[in-house]
Amino acid sequence: MKRVITAAIAFAFAAGMSNAQVADGDLAEDQANTSQILTNGMGRGLQRYSPLDMVNRETVKNLVPAWAFSLGGEKQRGQETQPLIYDGVMYITGSYSRVYAIDVKTGAEIWQYDARLPEGILPCCDVVNRGAAIYGDKIFFGTLDARVVALNRHTGDVIWRDKIADYKAGYSYTAAPLIVNGLVITGNSGGEFGIVGEVQARDTETGELIWTRPVIEGHMGTYKGEESTMTGTLNATWPGDMWKTGGGATWLGGSYDADTHTIVFGTGNPAPWNSWLRNAGQHNDGSGDNLYAASRIGMDPDTGEIKWHFQTTPREGWDYDGVNEVIPYVDRAGNMRYATADRNGFFYVLNREDGKFVRGGPFVKDISWASGLDENGRPIYNEENRPGNPVESADGKKGEVVFSSPSFLGGKNWMPMSFSRRTGNFYVPTNEWGMDIWNEPITYKKGAAYLGSGFTIKPNYEDHIGSLKAIDPDTGEWVWEYKNDAPLWSGVMTTAGGLVFFGNPEGEFIALDDETGEKLWSFQTGSGVVGQPVTWEQDGEQFISIISGWGGAVPLWGGEVAKKVNYLNQGGLLWTFRLPRELAMAQ
């Protein structure tokens, strides 16, 4: 561990720092309290909506930079963090498992924590970190060697750290933790290595492991150190012993629905990708569904017991995962709903009481692997679009190649969408791309890639790949679309000022009109934007922050698509903008 504390800054700042602590009530009111940001998603429901409206359609043109903060050093890879703000301090994470505390008024560094990562870590999709959590007097975050760390928020000193899983087997962790009732709740990463997805809950004070919930059938959960219940039914949907290395990584973290006291986590791809080895390519009767991979799972946050599940891609064979965020909201008719946009290209609305399917439809243009969804939300497969079985090929080494859309990076990947309480619409960052994909023989080996597939990603259109869409969840209608040449990979934020904020790989931080999609403002940040914007009120003015720093999965896995943006510079710069009080009313 390396901790750097800037002595003069820290001394001066500590003199005025309060002993305030974040409590459960503060987390519950995070979306409504515009002076601070305590949770990933600007509220544990992940709506990423702010009731602030000083910056609006008329005044957004008057935004100016307030300060910028460099992450420094040579570790400038993908910067996907979302800032937290509390008691005069902004907290961000950086690539290679770093945490920074910054004076929110000046942009000066207070302290930095740099995890000492071992040799041999196995992150699949860049060395990113998507943010931290705050509770009591602590900051919590995960590391690339699959640990969860609790730091003193005043000094950056380690209070406790604990191992989530064995990084040598391919486990890692990149998501922001979730805090519910004094528990810090984490998932895991590593779905390409034949790991087993799991959700874990620890006491925020001591780090004691309270419960664990594996998400692949056949594995036992635990509660306070003792076995609790089995996930699913052994061998109901998995053949032989394949459930033991079944994938299902919970790598994007979860949301919390306070109305039903439920945490909802998405689960990733089953392992290996080659669905024929899992019987998924042969059976459409449920026996090859490979539960609970590629699913959304509702759990009791106190015990980890599963309340319900909804599988978006049974018989998954394209690496469409199922981890994308699940957002609780109330629709225009007053119904309590969940919404989620899956990598498979379909947008789903679910019932919040039991996770059952309400409606769904495409949110990208060219879905080739399925023709639609049935009355239960199960995909209607185009069986000819499943990658071929290598056993049936002439040499047994490569199955039939098919072109599938969307690509395995998804119609939407990790980048979070936003729900606007002002319009009732969702604003979804999407990508229009496909892939040539084929299956290959594969056997499990600890710490080695466990795919059994090959692929080449290709853009579907010449004039754009990225596409930010406004979607009416009541009808599935696309209200408008904003096209972008390069893939979109940043989070989205909406505000009561009628604005939609996001960034693009070309380096622009952009504000659109939430009703029309018209571009109203942009700022060139100097590197690709793959971070998550936030906004807050300070000294009677509205501020907005976004981190800039190109990286993530696209340049590593993007094939032909990556070539479109291979000129981009890496970076690590946190930009903060303000609307000066005297310009807040300017037209």
Features:
mainly beta; six-stranded antiparallel beta sheet; 4 helices
Tally of contiguous helical segments: 4
N-to-C CA distance: 50 Å
Shape: globular
Q: Kindly state the percentage of residues in helix.
A: under 10%
Largest sheet: spatial strand order: 12-13-14-15-16-17
Strand content: 35-45%
Rg computed from alpha carbons, rounded to a whole number of angstroms = 22 Å
Structural class: mainly beta
Largest sheet: 6 strands, antiparallel
Number of beta-strand segments: 41
Low-confidence stretches: none
What would the average pLDDT be, to the nearest integer? 94
Could you characterize what this model shows?
The structure is a single chain. The protein has a 6-stranded antiparallel sheet, with no helix packed on it. The chain has 4 helices and 41 strands. The protein is 4% helix and 36% strand. The protein has 587 residues and is mainly beta. The relative contact order is 0.13.
What's the short version?
With 587 residues, the protein is mainly beta. It contains four helices and 41 strands.
Can you lay out the helices and strands and say which pair or pack?
Elements: E1 2-5, H1 7-16, H2 24-28, E2 49-50, E3 64-70, E4 84-86, E5 89-94, E6 98-103, E7 109-114, E8 133-135, E9 138-142, E10 147-152, E11 158-163, E12 178-180, E13 183-186, E14 198-203, E15 209-214, E16 220-223, E17 226-230, E18 254-257, E19 262-266, E20 295-299, E21 306-311, E22 327-330, E23 336-341, E24 346-351, E25 357-362, E26 370-373, E27 379-381, E28 402-404, E29 418-419, E30 426-431, E31 433-439, E32 453-459, E33 466-471, E34 478-484, E35 493-495, E36 499-503, E37 508-513, E38 519-524, E39 534-538, E40 541-548, H3 553-557, H4 560-563, E41 573-579
